[in-house]
Automatic annotation (TrEMBL), chain A:
<dbReference type="GO" id="GO:0006310">
    <property type="term" value="P:DNA recombination"/>
</dbReference>
<dbReference type="InterPro" id="IPR003717">
    <property type="entry name" value="RecO"/>
</dbReference>
<keyword id="KW-0234">DNA repair</keyword>
<dbReference type="Pfam" id="PF02565">
    <property type="entry name" value="RecO_C"/>
</dbReference>
<dbReference type="GO" id="GO:0006302">
    <property type="term" value="P:double-strand break repair"/>
</dbReference>
<comment type="function">
    <text>Involved in DNA repair and RecF pathway recombination.</text>
</comment>
<dbReference type="InterPro" id="IPR022572">
    <property type="entry name" value="DNA_rep/recomb_RecO_N"/>
</dbReference>
<comment type="similarity">
    <text>Belongs to the RecO family.</text>
</comment>
<dbReference type="InterPro" id="IPR037278">
    <property type="entry name" value="ARFGAP/RecO"/>
</dbReference>
UniProtKB/TrEMBL annotation, chain B:
<dbReference type="GO" id="GO:0006281">
    <property type="term" value="P:DNA repair"/>
</dbReference>
<feature type="zinc finger region" description="C4-type">
    <location>
        <begin position="60"/>
        <end position="75"/>
    </location>
</feature>
<dbReference type="GO" id="GO:0006310">
    <property type="term" value="P:DNA recombination"/>
</dbReference>
<dbReference type="Pfam" id="PF02132">
    <property type="entry name" value="RecR_ZnF"/>
</dbReference>
<comment type="similarity">
    <text>Belongs to the RecR family.</text>
</comment>
<protein>
    <recommendedName>
        <fullName>Recombination protein RecR</fullName>
    </recommendedName>
</protein>
<keyword id="KW-0233">DNA recombination</keyword>
<keyword id="KW-0863">Zinc-finger</keyword>
<dbReference type="Pfam" id="PF21176">
    <property type="entry name" value="RecR_HhH"/>
</dbReference>
Amino acid sequence: MDWRDEGLVIGVKRHGESAVILELMTRAHGRHAGMVRGGAGRALRSVLQPGNSVEVAWRARLEQHLGAFAVEPLRSRAARLIDRAFALHGVGHLCALLRLLPERDPHGELFDMAEVIADRLDSLDLAPALMARFELALLAALGFGLDLERCALTGETADLAYVSPKTGRAVARAAAAPWRDRLLPFPEFLRQPAPAGADAEELAAAFRLTGHFLQRDVFGPRGLTAPQARALYVAACGAMRA
Amino acid sequence: MAERIAGPEIERLVQLLARLPGLGPRSARRAVLHLMRKREELLGPLGEAMRVAHERILTCTTCGNIDTSDPCAICRDTRRDAGILVIVETVADLWALERAGLLAARYHVLGGVLSPLDGVGPNELNIASLMQRVSEGSVREAIIAVNATVDGQTTAHYLADLLAPLGVKTTRLAHGVPVGGELDYLDEGTLAAALERRTAF
């Protein structure tokens, strides 16, 4: 068995003295692990940093085996990010989110989104907004997508300002009035079809919205709490924008 | 099945040595053969030295270094500048800096770096004792000397945030082209970092 693909490094674990188990989010093969011989050595250590992109050739005798990767660097982002706390926390958070996906289950769209975010992690204007959109896309990929196209009460498609924390369906501003305190705000920038920037308040609302459903539908049932990386990222973005 | 070629005591010695970094079963067997040949000059003293080390090795409760006394020799050394505290990941890093002999400072060993993906949080590291040391007031500068990896630098930023309210000057090691490094072999991230921090002649 062998294939070649492009992948985003999401985790590296030492295996013996010189090898590592590399965990990648690949375009066509999903989240995939494999051994890299010599991965702990000087030549590859800087390549195998979370957030970097690599081209890999995977080879194993049987498909269900762990297999081994031969790695070539594609884009080194880690060195550019290490000066900025929010960017580093962003790498951690992005990798933690990708690790929620089942292994070897292709999600080409999420891979592309993750690559776009990884390229912009040092941009405080773009990255947090993209990350919030990514969390929504991840929820959808895991089967817990929110219904944000039309109002759950009236069927309207305009002025959707809230989301029900129970059903995950959007609610129009006028229809939401009696229950506003119990609903989650649906920030304007998430309603736009194309990625758009957001102010601090909108971002906080977006992360509260996605955080609620991630906790209820993903972390909770798996017996997990929200990863520390997420809290650090949200806090770092808030602190930088304040 | 392979026939055993030595007694169980020797086999056990080979097995234990093979677990050391840099040694495998073949090199462990060679080391054991060498030890047996030099039984009086090497095997006996080595066994005794290991027994004594096993009995006396302690982790310094002040800095986390490994020594045979607590506080360790570095923490007891009054010639060192107590105002400079070098924060390192592991004892190996402390020893590397000491080998270089560049700084007569005190150290603090974190015992690793934050790695949220692997479940290593602040409580798993010697961060509380670091804050305690710094808040006692004698530290003027904290040098965060952790590896230039994503996890290492995440830890550095975390520590810098914690140390900021204590009014201590916080610095970190420079990033860029290593001595002996060839530009052709450097990744573009390191090159970018080196260019960003270029210095005037």
